[in-house]
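Morning F.,

Quick status update on the modeling queue. The single chain you submitted on Monday has been processed. Sequence for confirmation:
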Amino acid sequence: MRLFDRNPIRSDEQALKEEQKKGQGEEAYIAQEESDSEPLTLTATTSTVSSCSQDQLWYLDSGCSNHMTCHREWLVNFAETKKSRAKFANDSTSKVEEIGDVAVRRKNGSRAIINNVFFVPKMRCNLLSIGHLIQKGFTVVMGGFNKVELFDKNKNLILRSKISKSRTF
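Structure tokens below.
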């Protein structure tokens, strides 16, 4: 008996497409840059948002390789990108039109700058790349009491968020 005949291994993309077909209210997307440069990979989960929301929330995403937003008006110090396209699990694509910085206001009133944010008009939510943050020296702690915490290089707490009902941060 061969085990792989009884329990076939599915690729992540196949599994996501099957979940989308079930229509359970949540959608998972994978994006990939199509250019000669290093591949861009993104995984995002959304629920009922149908277009670029006016919501100012940012979701921490461990599968997202770059910070992304659908809000062009938030970008400062921006530049057009070379021919980059995001490819989604449903085989649709969207152009990464610009890369810029976004200024955000913290709860305490201070401002922070998020550098190198991709403007993707067809995004449904704003994403912060955990991998990108770690490369810049931040520390991400997930777990204890269903929360995630982000610390800067000096171990100062930058943000703390509890897990949502849809298991996102």
